[in-house]
Design brief:
There is one protein chain. By secondary structure, the chain is mostly helical. Helices cover 61% and strands 10% of the residues. It has 8 helices and 6 strands; from the N terminus they run H-H-H-E-E-E-E-E-E-H-H-H-H-H. The strands form 3 sheets. Strands 1-2 form a two-stranded antiparallel ribbon. The chain has a two-stranded antiparallel sheet with strand order 3-4. Strands 5-6 form a two-stranded antiparallel ribbon. A hairpin with a 4-residue loop joins strand 1 and strand 2. The chain is elongated, with a radius of gyration of 26 Å. 23% of the residues are buried.
């Protein structure tokens, strides 16, 4: 829902508005919009693929053939599993190289879908960054004179003629747009902080070749898995 709010805000304040761009640069909005919607499309595709892709379910017939040194028992499943496989308490199963159970994708992130999940984070970060930059640019170019006029012009506030009410209606609509822009900008900023922190944590784990679950056990150590 938050992501759809960002997309709707982008449609309203960027794609259908030219006021924040100089006359010679209005074609840039189409390039910006093209990049933004490409990132949104790829993020949605990667999101769906992460949901439907099996994160790494175990084939217990193959696990039984492994050497004893390369497997260990799961206390919850009461079955042997390969090393680096972990049990998900939400899904109730063990997965190969399980990283974490992600509520964003309603699925575990593991051996078979971590790459898709990482691409989902990358495209989401780029899209949110573009939206935030454009929202801030539009906000800086917005005029707050209507808000000042309404606050100062007390005499006209008491004039309920049709013409005056029409003027005030237009001014309040502009103020409402600015307030909505502030709300969408705040949502975008908070989402970008959240997704970027997730992106950095994934970079750290991939660099060390460990999962999020394993990072707790190997925190502060420099060795990595082969």
């Amino acid at each position: 829902l938050f992501m759809y709010a960002v997309i709707a805000g982008f449609n309203k304040y960027i794609f259908f508005t030219d006021s924040f761009l100089p006359n010679g640069l209005k074609a840039i909005k189409y390039i910006i919009s093209l990049i933004f919607y490409f990132c949104v499309s790829m993020a949605v595709i990667c999101h769906v693929l992460t949901i439907v892709t099996d994160p790494g379910s175990l084939n217990y017939d193959l696990v039984a053939k492994l050497n004893p040194e390369t497997k260990n028992p799961c206390m919850k499943c009461n079955k042997d599993r390969p090393n680096r496989a972990h049990h998900c308490s939400v899904c109730g199963r063990c997965f190969m190289k399980m990283d974490h159970h992600c509520p964003w994708v309603f699925n575990c992130v593991g051996f078979r879908n971590q790459k898709i999940f990482f691409l989902f984070i990358i495209y989401t970060n780029i899209g949110l960054l573009i939206a935030l930059i454009m929202f801030v640019a539009f906000f800086c170019s917005s005029s707050f004179t209507d808000l000042v006029d309404i606050a100062k012009d007390k005499k006209r506030n008491l004039d309920f003629s049709e013409n005056n009410m029409l003027i005030f209606g237009n001014k309040f609509k502009k103020i409402g747009d600015i307030l909505m822009l502030c709300l969408v900008t705040g949502i975008t900023f908070l989402m970008l902080l959240s997704v970027f922190s997730l992106f950095m944590s994934q970079i750290y784990l991939i660099k060390r070749n460990i999962t999020n679950i394993e990072s707790d056990a190997y925190r502060g150590k420099e060795e990595t898995y082969p």
